[in-house]
């Protein structure tokens, strides 16, 4: 029963990834695209976590951590770029 539920959730997350990808390509504003990219990263973390549960292994924990950090830093950097037009502030005092 649990395995069937895990596979159903995996299919649902795959559909969510497809919908997020459509929003990234077709999004009306840049903010929608950034939000879709962030949600895409979260969905990928969920998919990898489900694969870990299905395979009963802890091999992909490092991949989860790196993907989470990259998704977070990427969404922060893109948001800052949209707000100010630059990512890294260099103060020359």
UniProtKB/TrEMBL annotation:
Coiled coil: none annotated. One of its GO terms (molecular function) is sodium:proton antiporter activity. It is found in: Cell membrane. InterPro entries: MrpF/PhaF-like (IPR007208). It is a multi-pass membrane protein. One of its GO terms (cellular component) is plasma membrane. The keyword NADP does not apply. The chain crosses the membrane at residues 6-25, 34-54, 60-82. Keywords: Antiport, Cell membrane, Ion transport, Membrane, Transmembrane, Transmembrane helix, Transport. Its main location: membrane. The keyword Cell inner membrane does not apply. It comes from the Bacteria. Pfam families: MrpF_PhaF (PF04066). Belongs to the CPA3 antiporters (TC 2.A.63) subunit F family. This is Na(+)/H(+) antiporter subunit F1. It comes from Aquibacillus koreensis.
């Amino acid at each position: 029963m649990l395995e069937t539920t895990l596979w159903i959730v995996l299919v649902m997350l795959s559909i969510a990834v497809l919908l997020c990808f459509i929003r990234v390509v077709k999004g009306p504003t840049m903010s929608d695209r950034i939000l879709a990219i962030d949600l895409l990263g979260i969905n990928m973390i969920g998919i990898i976590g489900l694969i870990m549960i299905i395979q009963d292994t802890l091999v992909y924990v490092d991949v989860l951590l790196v993907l989470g950090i990259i998704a977070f830093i990427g969404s922060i950097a893109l948001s800052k770029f949209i707000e100010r037009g630059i990512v890294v502030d260099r103060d020359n005092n």
